[in-house]
Design goal:
By secondary structure, the protein is α+β, with helices and mostly antiparallel strands. It folds into 3 domains: about 90 residues, Acyl-CoA dehydrogenase/oxidase, N-terminal domain (Butyryl-Coa Dehydrogenase, subunit A, domain 1, Orthogonal Bundle), CATH 1.10.540.10; about 100 residues, Butyryl-CoA Dehydrogenase, subunit A, domain 2 (Beta Barrel); about 160 residues, Butyryl-CoA Dehydrogenase, subunit A, domain 3. It contains 11 helices and 10 strands. The strands form 2 sheets. Strands 1, 2, 3, 4, 5, 6, 7 and 8 form an 8-stranded mixed beta sheet that branches. The two termini are about 15 Å apart. The structure holds flavin-adenine dinucleotide.
Length: about 375
C-alpha cells in the first residue's frame, strides 16, 4: 500500500517518538517497575512535542483529529515499546465526545492537553466479560446521585483526576449509565493494588464506592446510554489493539531475524537451519496478514462502513491480531534460545506484554461470541465481502 504523504509523516513521527523516548526507558522500567516523576514529565513533554496526544479527539477540543487509519499507524508504532509504555500516550476516553459543552470545557479539553487524567472504569468482581452484570448503583437523592459498589481492574484510578464510572441507575440493569466522578470526594477508597504480569508504570486497583455523592449534572450522555457509550469505546480500543499487536509482532520479527543472522551454532548462522528459517517465514506471513487486515478495516471505517458491520469486523481484527502476536512472539523467543528467557532482552518483555491483549477489551472468546452473533444475524458476507 502506498501511504499518503500525511500518513507517512504521522507514521514516521510516531516511530521516532517510540525509538527516541520509549526505547531508552524500557530497561529501567523493567528494573524498577515504575516510572520516575522525571520520566513522566519527559513523556508528557515529548508526547506534546511529537503531537501524539488525544489522537482520536477533534482539533477544536485540543486533539489531533486523526482518522481511524492514522490512529492505527500511531498505535502500531507505540505498541512496539515494552512495559506497556504505549499507555502513557494519552487518549481521553472516547465517550467524552457525548459530553455537554460545559463538561467538554471542564474535562475533555484539559484531558486532551494532558493536564488531567481520566480513566474509564467498568469491570467489577461480578461484571467482567458480561458488562451487563455491573452491580454498582447510582440512586437519586435530591439533586445528587449516591453511588455504591466495587470496581476491579480500575486502571489508573489511583492517580485519576476524574473517573468515568459505569453504574446502573436505581439498581435497574436497563439503565446502565456513565458518571463523571471525583476520586477526592468522600466515599472513594482504593482497597487493593494487585500485582500484574507487566506493571507499565501504572496500577489497576480495586476500588470501593460507599455513599459517594455525585451532582446529577455529572452524567455523561443520558441515563441508560452506558452500554452504547462503552461500545463506542470498544470499536476504537479493539482496532488499536490490532494495530499494537502488529507493532509487537513486527518488532519480534525484526529482533528474531537479526538474532538468527548473527547467532552461530554448529559452524553456521542459525537462520541457515531450515527449522529456524521456516519459523521466521511463518512469523513474517502472519505479521503481514494481520497488518493488511488492520489497515483495510481501518480504511473501510474511515470510508463510512456501517457502524454494526464495523463492530463485527473489528472483533475479528482484535481476535486475529492478538492471537497472531502471541504466536509470533512465542516463536521469536524460541529463536533467542535461553536469552529469550532473560528479562534484559526485549523479546522476553514482549512475551509478557502481549498476553493481556487476548484478555482486555473483551477476551478472545467474547470476540468469537460477537462474531458468531453477526454470522447468525447478518450472514457470512459480513466477513467474506469487502466494502
Ligand atoms: C491489566 C488489566 C487492565 C484492565 N483495565 C481495565 C480498565 O481500565 N477498565 C475496565 O473496566 N476493565 C479493565 N480490565 C478488565 C478486563 O476488561 C477484563 O479482565 C476482561 O473483560 C475479562 O473479564 P474477567 O477478567 O472478569 O473474566 P471473566 O469474565 O470471568 O472470564 C473468564 C473466562 O471465561 C470466558 N468467558 C466468559 N464469558 C464467556 C462466554 N460467553 N463464552 C465463552 N467464554 C466466556 C472468558 O473468555 C475467560 O476465558 C483490565 C484487565 C486487566 C488484566
Amino acid at each position: 500500500m502506498d501511504l499518503s504523504t500525511r500518513s507517512r509523516e504521522i507514521q514516521q513521527r510516531a516511530r521516532e517518538f517510540t525509538e527516541k523516548v520509549f526505547f531508552p526507558m524500557e530497561l529501567e522500567l523493567e528494573e524498577t517497575d515504575t516510572l520516575t516523576r522525571a520520566q513522566h514529565q519527559t513523556i508528557k513533554e515529548q508526547v506534546l512535542h511529537y503531537r501524539l496526544n488525544a489522537i482520536d479527539h477533534p482539533i477544536d477540543v485540543g486533539g489531533q483529529g486523526y482518522n481511524i487509519f492514522e490512529q492505527c499507524l500511531v498505535h502500531e508504532e507505540i505498541g512496539k515499546a515494552t512495559g506497556g509504555l504505549w499507555n502513557h500516550v494519552w487518549t481521553p476516553p472516547l465517550p467524552l465526545r457525548e459530553a455537554t459543552e460545559l463538561q467538554k470545557k471542564t474535562y475533555l479539553v484539559p484531558a486532551c492537553a494532558g493536564e488531567i487524567y481520566i480513566p474509564y472504569s467498568i469491570s467489577e468482581p461480578t461484571g467482567g466479560s458480561d458488562a451487563g452484570g455491573v452491580k454498582t448503583t447510582a440512586v437519586l437523592d435530591g439533586d445528587e446521585y449516591v453511588i455504591n459498589g466495587e470496581k476491579m481492574f480500575a486502571s489508573g484510578c489511583e492517580r485519576a483526576d476524574v473517573i468515568l464510572l459505569h453504574a446502573i441507575v436505581d439498581g435497574d440493569p436497563n439503565k446502565p449509565t456513565v458518571f463523571i466522578v471525583d476520586p477526592k470526594a468522600p466515599g472513594f477508597e482504593i482497597t487493593g493494588l494487585p500485582k500484574f504480569m507487566t506493571h507499565g508504570g501504572r496500577d489497576h486497583p480495586n476500588v470501593k464506592y460507599t455513599n459517594m455523592r455525585v451532582p446529577r449534572d455529572r452524567i455523561l450522555g443520558e441515563i441508560g446510554q452506558g452500554l452504547e457509550l462503552t461500545k463506542d469505546w470498544f470499536l476504537e480500543a479493539r482496532i488499536w489493539i490490532g494495530a499494537r499487536c502488529v507493532g509487537i509482532a513486527s518488532r519480534a520479527l525484526d529482533l528474531a531475524t537479526n538474532r538468527a543472522k548473527e547467532r552461530k551454532q554448529f559452524g553456521r548462522a542459525i537462520i541457515d537451519f531450515q527449522g529456524i528459517e521456516f519459523m521466521l517465514a511463518d512469523m513474517a506471513t502472519q505479521t503481514l496478514a494481520a497488518k493488511c487486515m488492520v489497515y483495510r478495516v481501518a480504511e473501510e471505517i474511515d470510508a463510512g462502513l456501517d457502524r454494526k458491520i464495523a463492530h463485527a469486523r473489528v472483533s475479528a481484527v482484535k481476535l486475529f491480531c492478538s492471537e497472531m502476536a502471541g504466536r509470533v512472539v512465542d516463536q521469536a523467543l524460541q529463536i533467542f534460545g535461553g536469552r529469550g528467557y532473560m528479562r534484559e532482552y526485549a523479546i522476553e518483555r514482549l512475551y509478557r506484554d502481549v498476553r493481556v491483549e487476548r484478555i482486555w477489551e473483551g477476551t478472545s472468546e467474547i470476540q468469537k461470541v460477537i462474531i458468531g452473533r453477526h454470522l447468525r444475524k447478518r450472514g457470512p458476507s459480513v466477513y467474506s465481502e469487502l466494502m
